[in-house]
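seq as requested:
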Amino acid sequence: MINSILPTGLKCLQQNKPCFLGSPQSATFAVDCGSSRSISGSDNTKYQPDDANLGAASYYITGDPTWGVSNVGKFLDTSNGSYIIYSSRQFQNTLDSELFQTARMSPSSLRYYGIGLENGNYTVTLQFAEFDFEDSQTWKSVGRRVFDIYVQGERKEQNFDIRKAAGGKSYTAVRKKYIVPVTKNFLEIHLFWAGKGTCCIPSQGYYGPAISALSATPNFTPTVLTAAQKNSSKTGVIVGVLVGAAVLGLVALVGLCMWRQKRRKLLLEQQELYSMVGRPNVFSYGELRTATESFSSSNLLGKGGYGSVYMGKLTDGRVVAVKQLSETSHQGKKQFAAEIETISRVQHRNLVKLYGCCLEGNNPLLVYEYLENGSLDKALFGSGKLNLDWPTRYEICLGIARGLAYLHEESSIRVVHRDIKASNVLLDANLNPKISDFGLAKLDDDKETHVSTKVAGTFGYLAPEYAMRGHMTEKVDVFAFGVVILEALTGRPNYDSRLDEDRAYLLEWIWQLYEQNHPLDAVDPRLVEFDREEVLRAIRVGLLCIQSSPRQRLPMSRVVSMLAGDMTVPDTVTKPSYVTEWQSNSSVREEALSASPILSSIIEEGR
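C-alpha cells:
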C-alpha cells in the first residue's frame, strides 16, 4: 500500500514513536528486495517480496503489518526512474542466487522497518551483491558504490563498498550480520549515501545504496506466534474444547494470569531502562548465565563493595565482563540505573564501554567490555605478572586525566565520578587505562547546592571538604586523581599499615620528602630507569591536585596540559593545611576519626 497518509494504527511513525508499543505482533521477518514473489532460502527462511514502485519520497508498508520500506531522493539526470535493478546471472558465494537477481536501490536514503517486533536482541542479516559496476577491464569497472549502514540509529559501516567487501568481485554475495536490540517493538535499518563514490558510471542513476535481501531473527525464544502457528493453535484449541473445555480452560486462565502479571512486571522494569538516554542492549538472564558458565568461580574476575564481576563469552563471540549486583549491596536499583544512565551518555577511549544490562530477578547485571589486564591497583600493588615501567605508568596517568577531563568539561553532560581510585581504573590489552564503576557517579547540576547528606567513596581518596562537610564538586575527582598519580609513581597504596608511622600515610610521606628536597626518593624501587623531569612533573601535578581547598586544585584540562608538557608546572607548591596538622600532631588523625562516625565507617569499608 503506497499512500500519502499512513494507514490507521501506523500514524505513530510520523511522530517518531514505534507502533505496537508493548503489543508485539511478530518476532521475525525477511525481505527479498526488489522481487515480485516469495522465495524460500536454503536455510528455510521465507523471504517476502518487495516490488513496490517507490518514488522520490515515498514508502510501502505490508498489510500484516510486519515491515515497511521508505525511500528519499531522486537520481540525477536519469532517463530510467526505476529504483529496482535486475540481473539474470548466477551469483557466487551463495546457495540462494535467486535472492541476488534483484536489488532495491536509492539515490540518497533507503530505510527498512521492522514493525511490531517482540523486544529482545536480534540478528540482523543484510545481503548485498554488486552487479551494476562490472569487474571487467573496461571503463565501466571504475564505478564505486559507497554508502553508510545504520542499524537502530548506530552506524555499523562507514564508506561501505559492496564490491570491495567481496574482494573486488561483482556478482558475488556479501553478508553483514549485526546483533542489535529491539527495545520498543521497532527495528530500523538505514542505508545512506553520504556523497562518496561515483554518480554517473556506468550510466546516470546507478549510484547510492543498494541491497538484495535482509532478515531479522530473534536471539531468544519468541512468545508471539507466526500466522501459521496461530492457525495451528486455533485448531488445537477447538480439539481441546471438545475433549475437555472446562479443565483446559481453567488451567489456561490461571496460566495466562500468571504470565501476564510476570510480563507486566518485566515490561515496567524494561520501560525504566528504555526511557534512559542511550537505550543500552538488554540481555536475558539466561543468556548471561550461559556466557559466564552459570557464574562459575573459575570465571570470577574480582569482588567489590557492590558485588562480583565475572568474565563471559557471548554467542556472537564477544568476551565481556559481567558485573553482578549482590542482594546485600548498598547499590540498589536507583544506583544501578544511575550507572547505566551515566555510562550510556558518555563515550571516551578512557572510559569503560557498556554493552548492556539485565534487570531480571533479584541480581541486576551490567555487561561491560572485557579488559585483559585487570585493574591498576593489582598491577601496582599486587603480585600479578605486569611489571609497569615508568613510561607506561606515565601514559596511564595521562589517560586517566583525559578521561576525567572529558567527564568534567567536554561531554554533553558534566559528571562527577566520586569514586576515582586505582581499583576503578582498568587496563586493556595495550595497557590503555579506562575508568570504570560509575555506580556512585553524579550528574553535575549547576543549580544544586553541591552538598550531599550521604558521603560515598573510598577512604584515602576522599577530598577533605567532601569527607567532612559533604561538599561535592568535580574537584573531588581531582583530589582522588592526585592520590592515584602519587600511588603510580611510588608503587604503593595511599595507606600501608606495614610501614613505619612516618611512612604509613602516602601523602604525609611525599610532602616530607618534597620539603627535604628529596622527592625522587619516593619513586618505586622497581623503576630502575625513569625520566627525572617527568617524575618531578608528575609529583608536582599530584601535589597540586591534593590541595586542601578545591579552588587551589587544578581543573583536569590543565592537568592534562601539564602532564602532556604543553603547560609549565609551577616550581612551588603550597603545603595543604591537613598535612601540616598531621605532622604537628600525629594524634590529631586518630582523634578526628574517633570524632567522625562518617570517616570511621568509610575507613572500615575501605579496608
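DSSP finds 15 helices and 25 strands in the chain.
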